[in-house]
Each structure stands twice: as structure tokens, then as C-alpha cells.
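thread: overnight batch results

M.L. [08:02]
morning all. the overnight job finished for the chain we discussed friday. pasting input first so we're all looking at the same thing
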Amino acid sequence: MRLIKNFANHKIAVVIVVVLLAVQAFCDLSLPNYTSDIVDVGIQQSGVEHASTDALTERTHDLVAIMESEQNESLFADSYSQRSDGTYELTDFGREHRAELDDAMSMPLVAVHYADQTGMDLDQLKAAYDAGMVQKPDVQTMLDEAKSQMGDMADSIVDQQAIAAAKAEYEQLGYDLNAMQMNYLLTTGGKMLGLAALGMVIAVIVGFIASRTAAKIGASLRSRLFERVLSFSDAEIQSFSAASLITRGTNDVQQVQMVSVMMLRMILYAPILAIGGIIMIARTNLSMGWIIVAAVLAIAVVMLFLMKVAMPKFKIMQKLIDRVNLVSREILTGIPVVRAFGREAHEEERFDEANLRLMKTQLFTNRVMTFMMPLMMLIMNLVSVAIIWFGGHAVDAGTLQTGDLIAFITYSMVIIMGFLMIGMLSIMLPRADVAAQRIDEVLKTESSIADPSTEVCRDDELAARTGGAEIAFNDVSFRYPGSQDCVLEHVDFTAKPGQTTAIIGSTGAGKSTVIKLVERFADVSEGFITIDGVDIRDLSLHALRGQLGYVPQKAFLFSGTVEENVDYAADELNAERVRAAAEIAQADFVDDMDEGFKTEISQGGTNVSGGQRQRLAIARALATDARAFLFDDSFSALDYKTDAALRHALAEQLGGKTQIIVAQRISTVLHADQIVVLDEGRVVGCGTHAELMDACEPYREIALSQLSEEELEGGDAQ
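M.L. [08:03]
and the structure it wrote out:
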């Protein structure tokens, strides 16, 4: 089972919990026995537990000795020693063999005291025995006849009468029965309190270990999920969806963590308690065991029915939570658009629909659970009534003592509660199992973009290189997984060190895809891309991306300070490097902020403008030790003046570094050393601005759509 394997790294904790639960079960199962003893022994028998009394009068001792069978004669003789006053006291040997001694003395002791109550002269019997006129077999025959007259209940009657005889013997010896009774009640009550306290302490310890273990399982799952998701390419992210991945890392993990606690505290404890209760009932009285069997079967039928009804709903509940998260995320992210187009009512309806579907499913499952509890309580109450009804007849017939009946009721409730806990958890387990399955789907998904094996890895070839990097596309074609159409087809060009290569084209031409392929956010379908002659697929992702400074099309900032965002790639902040990168990126607005580089940036950079966000994203790339910089339409939010100043600073400060710029504005690429023109995924032109204006019609159309011929010929579009 998927849930169980989460405990693989916590075997010691599980073993400790099992041992502690066994001790707790012993404590809980011992209490009904003590309750039975308090009723039967402490109240009904005045604290007298054994037919073999602690002391005997000389006359009783001698008469019992006559009535003992030959096989019990030595046992009785060794169990009592005579004191100086003529009475006999129980020896250590007798205490060690008290159960055997009780059986041996019960009938003789009853006979002695019954005879005294009826006026029979046992002294005459003793005199005849001493004179040899009556032999031991004759005495045994008399006892057997007396016992046979008691009928089928002879053993039970003898046991009860033996206790009464023991009480009478204690009275003859001058014992205070009230003191004996109180001493027994206090001793037994003290034991019960001790066991209850021990059980409570163990329950607290088990709860602590279970909660700690479950928390570690949850933390481990979240960590593994996060690590796995970070390794995913865009294809895997899209296949799951961001909303689903968030649900799996939060709600699903929470489900697994919650059930892990219950598995350690209840699922392990329930069978131990149920099996222990069955054993204790077998030791108490099996005549009413059929009631327990019937109750367990009834619970099983109810559980199976409810699981059949509720299981399908549990399986779809997590998907409905995914849907609610997806809709919520879309609305919150796109709330400016929603407001701008006045679609608040439409989005409310869309959210209500997802929310209502989840609510109805949860209500259904909750109603099933609500329906289950009254049924279980009805079964438990019927069991109690049946036990009292049949047990009352047994008590009346003398086959069962009142305390044993109370213990039987308690043990039956323990057994039923054990199966009830298992049943309740069996309703919750399917949902947790679905959550575990969804987590496993993510953990077992391998990223389509992976590091090469150590045998083919060529990181060392680039490790010591400085200056710019030569990036070459060699007959590259690319299509998205599951698609037949190529986004890029037979793309060939080389971005040389110290030069700026610009990529331009109409919307959907594949410009951003070129940048993504260099970064290995996706792998080429055909052909290959090299850095300094090394296929990028033969480089580890860490080594490859360490060569590149990347500015995404949609500038994204993290929550934290400006300084932390700019120096994001470094483990330790370097204020000098941060300021230099910001200066090149024309991020002079930072100095006008209240706290300068210590100013807090809100999540996603929503407290700065689009142009400011872009400049900080550019500064973040420039603050690295990259050998090539990839700008994916990163100047779109900049005004012409800032755009020109930024490009001028890049040309001066980056020196021999390689630049690849994806742009929509012709003014951004006019002075590039090389311009690659894409049209529907194909390279339709490659050269300088002047060359392309003469030889590439698509480029000429783009240029003339943005600037006049005079501006283009003048080369000054700023």
C-alpha cells in the first residue's frame, strides 16, 4: 500500500509505537478484570479471594486433611505449618501453589462448614478415622455423593460456597472482615489507578511519536515533491498544471500526514485491542461469544455498504480541489483583466460552480459518515442489551458471576470499538490513498530534461574558459510533445563571442523558443546546439546554465529586497556587484526608493512598474559570471531613451561576452552585429541591418511597419 511505504525510513519509531501500544492495550484490558474483582471479590466476597485461607483453626485443618484425596494430601500438608497457639498458617509453598490448593481445599472446606451449620458431628468422623474404622476412600465417597447431589452446577456452587466457608473460617480466627474488604478494595483500586496512569502516559508518548513521525513524513514528501518539481521541464509542469502541483504539495501531503498519525495511533492499536479483548473474553466466558461475532459481522456489513457508496466520491474529491485551486489562481492572477472587462459576475459564477461541486461532494461524504455513527451506536447498544439479557439469566442460574458479566460487557465494547475504529478509518483511507497516488505520480515522473551520464559529461571542457561563448544552432528543428507541427525547422546560425546576435520575426515565429532551447528548458527534436563546440546535451544543467545569463520575456521578481533580487544567483550578497549590475541595467530609480537597495519587493514585483521590473530582471542576469546573455524580448517595457542607453551600456561593459537579443522593436536590433530573421519557424534571413534591408523582404516589411525609410537609412531610431 502506498501509505505504508512512507514508514520505510521510520522503522524504529514504528517498532517503538507497536511495543508501547501493546503495553497500553495490556493496561486497558486489565482494568475490566479488576472491575470484576472489585464487584465479585471486594464487595460480594468481602475481600476474600481464595478458598485456601491464610490461616486455619486446628480442628478445621485436621478435618480438611482427612477429606483430602491421596494425590492432594501431600500438597495440603506442605502448604500449612502449625503455630505455637495450635492454629495453622499458610506457608510460602502454599502461596506458590495457591491455585492448586484452592481446588484441593474447596470441597473439604465446604463440607466442614456445612456440617457445622447443620449440626453434623464431624468430630465423631475424625475419631472413627483415627481409630481406623473409616478409611480415606470412604470419606472421598461421601464427598463425591454430596457433590453429585448439587447437579450440573456443582463446581460453580462449590467455588462460591468455599469462599463463604473461608469467610467463616476467618471469623472464627478473629479476623476483621471489614478491614480485609477495605484493604482489598484499596489495593485493587490502587492497581487500577496505576494502570490507568501508565496507559495515559503511554498514550501521550505514542501521540508524540506518531505526530512527530507523521510530521517528518509530511516534511519529507514536501521536500521530495519540491525537489522533483524543480527538476521538471516546461512539458512536465504543463502536464500536471501548476494548480494541481500546489494541491499535491499541500492538501494531498496533509491528507497523508493526517492518516499517518491515525495509522500509528489507531490502525495499529485497533487490532491489538480487538485481539486482546477476544482473548480476555475467552478466559472470562465463551458462552456469549456469539453476540460478539454477530456484532462484528453487522459492523462489517455496514462498513462495506458505506464504502461502496462513498468510495467513488473520495476518488474525485481531490480533483475537485484541484479545480477550485485552478480557478482561484486564475482569477487572482488575472484580476486586473477581470475588472477591466467587467467580468466579475462571470468569474464569480465560475468559482461558485467549482466550489459548489466540491461542497456537494464533501457534504455527501460527511453525510455518509454522519449516517455511520448512529448505526454503530445502535449496534453497540443492541450488543449491551443482548449481553445483559443473556448474562442476567446466566447470573440467575449461577453459571456467571456479576463481576464477570460486567467484564464481559466491557470487553465486548472494547472489541466492537476496535472494529469500529478500523471501519471508520477504512472510510478515510481511500481518500488518503488517492492523495498518496497523486503524490507518487509526481515523484515517479522523470524530467524529460536530465543531466548526461558521467561517461559522456563534458563539463570540464568549459570549466576554465573565460570571455564570450560561441553558441551555434546546427540544423535545429523542434516540436512540442504530441504535436506533429514543428515550431522551428532547420534553424542554422552562430552567435559569436563579443558580438550581439538579434532574433526578430512576427508573433509566433519561434523567437522565444530559440532562447528556451539554449537554456535547455526543452530539447531539440532534430539537430543539435553547441557551446564552444560542445553539445549542450553533454553538459550538466548546472554547468550549462552557469554559462548563461537569462532574462525571461515576462520579468519576474521574488519577494525580498532589491539587493536580494539582483544578486539572486549568488549564495552571499555582494553589494558592489549589485550596484554595478543595476547601473548597467539603467536601474537608477532604485536610489530614489526610500530604502534604496534594501527596499522590499512584494511577491511577483507588483510594487514596481513593468519597466522597473524588466530593468531589475536584466540587472539580475548581469550580476552573474555568465559568458553569454540571453534577452528574451526584455526591452519591450522600456522607453526608447532607456532602451538606447541600456544597449549602449551593454556594448561598453560586457566586452567580449556573447549577447542574444529577442526583440519585437526594430530599433532594438538595428545595430546588432548579426540579425536572424524568423518566419513561421524558419530562418529567412541572416545578416546586418543593411544587408537584410536589401536582401530579406520579411525583415524589410517589419522594419518599414515600425520606422520610416529616412529613420532606417539614418540608422538613428532613438
